[in-house]
Amino acid sequence: MSNDKFFKNNVKISGNGVQPIVFGHGYGCDQKMWRFITPAFEKDYQVILFDLVGSGESDQSAYDFEKYSSHQGYAEDLIEIIVEFDLPGVIFIGHSVSSIIGVLAAAERPDLFDKLVLVEPSPCYINDNEYFGGFTKKDIDELIETLESNYLGWSSFITPIIIGNSEMPEYSEELRNSFCAMNPEIAKHFAKATFLGDNREDLANVSTPALIIQSHPDVIALVQVGEFVHEKIKENKYVLLNTSGHCPHLTAPDQVISSIQTYLAN
User: How many domains does the chain have?
Assistant: First the structure.
């Protein structure tokens, strides 16, 4: 087991089971965002948490601006973790951008994955003809421009919108602090790769069975986007939660846990 690879992604392993569940976090977040979910699986599974390079307590010096100009670079890291730690039959649970990272990794190495769980996935944020991603190109260009000129101000503005539950300001504050803890140059670069990316065609390359978990309303990854992912992945189940916002693993963890447990039991 290579210490440099362990450090690069701040990999943490817990649990008493054999089959591994690997959790991937969203943009601006880190592995701690899964703290309400993972205890429910530690008895029966091996739980693996990691930070995307540039996020959390990962090795910031390992951030390669060319490699991570698309999510394929992160998919390569995920594959590397699975191979390095010799994880058999992985169940991968990814939130937001990590759901797409999981899609890319599973499309490249389907032999490594048993199941995917995609929480609030969006393969493309920009509207395109009949595809409704939720944002116009102008919207995204303005978002990127604001982010580049005032990242901290943008973080304070966007995080309550992402959480989407005004009665839970503590999670907006947590997310804002997480955003602000990132290296601004890395955060800006990662945001461009996320909001300007288009991975719609990659969905058809997934042969691994998947569960899609969707909140409504979610202004970041709209219900129409979740339904699009449901239509494009060959074998999947779709669950619409009775909650709103883009981070149900923070704001409605019981629903997320129940959805995953029901899926894995069948």
Answer: 1
